[in-house]
Design brief:
The chain is α/β, with parallel strands linked by helices and 224 residues long. Helix content is 40%, strand content 21%. The chain is elongated and about 65 Å long.
């Protein structure tokens, strides 16, 4: 069982390395983001333990690049930040687990063993509707060969519509899925974002893929 630990704090890295070695793991250590990326990209490791705050290239960038290279080795993120948005960002980029510093070594070992049992995840399926594609792993949206830049909220709405392709979805359902659970504003905000999407994924290509179903909601279909 081979672990790559990407951690720039020398004392912490050595403590963790020794502890994991005592548990039977083979541990390699990288001290910055660039080295961590190149070693992790080799595909020779069973799990990558990746700190977020790293010199050269921070952990989010390393993780994003690994998934872009289609390296699906399980990644456990380490961070001194425990905010829910920090964790959400990590999972959105393809992390498999998240541990906040300072952490229990016993918990770290238990989570590593859980990731090892689970193995490398399958590559997330690309969502499609005709020439429109959304790649969850790379968070890339394209119409044919043309990449389309979306804001996080636009991306969330489009992903929900694509996952429910050909089905009519209500504004309330979109709000529950894409907006914060505490959102109490007008549901017409969904109409605004659908408008933004139409101007980006349809209008420049002379297509119509998001239909309005009056009195109900929206439906995404394959554009003719």
């Amino acid at each position: 069982m081979r672990i790559l630990l990407v951690e720039d704090e020398a004392r912490l890295a050595e403590t963790v390395r020794r502890g994991l070695a005592a548990e039977g793991f083979v541990v390699d250590v990288a001290r910055d983001g660039f080295a961590g990326l190149e070693q992790a990209a080799s595909g020779e490791f069973d799990v990558v333990v990746l700190d977020i705050m790293l010199p050269g290239m921070h952990g989010y960038q390393v993780l994003r690049e690994l998934r872009a290279r289609e390296v699906w080795t399980p990644v456990l993120m380490l961070s001194a930040k425990d905010g829910e948005y920090d964790q959400a960002d990590a999972f959105d980029l393809g992390a498999d687990d998240y541990l906040t510093k300072p952490f229990s070594f016993v918990v770290l070992v238990a989570r590593l063993r859980a990731l090892l049992r689970r193995g490398a995840p399958e590559r997330p399926a690309i969502l499609t509707a005709g020439s429109l594609t959304l790649d969850p792993a790379r968070r890339r949206v394209a119409r044919g060969d043309t990449t389309i830049m979306l804001t996080p909220r636009e991306y969330g709405v489009l992903e929900y519509l694509l996952r429910n392709k050909d089905d009519v979805v209500t504004k309330a359902a979109i709000l529950r899925s894409v907006w914060d659970s505490n959102y109490e504003g007008d549901d017409n905000v969904v109409e605004v974002y659908v408008g933004y999407l139409r101007r980006k994924i349809d209008a420049p290509f002379g297509l119509t893929s998001i239909e309005t179903v009056r009195g109900v909601g929206y439906r995404l279909v394959e554009a003719a």
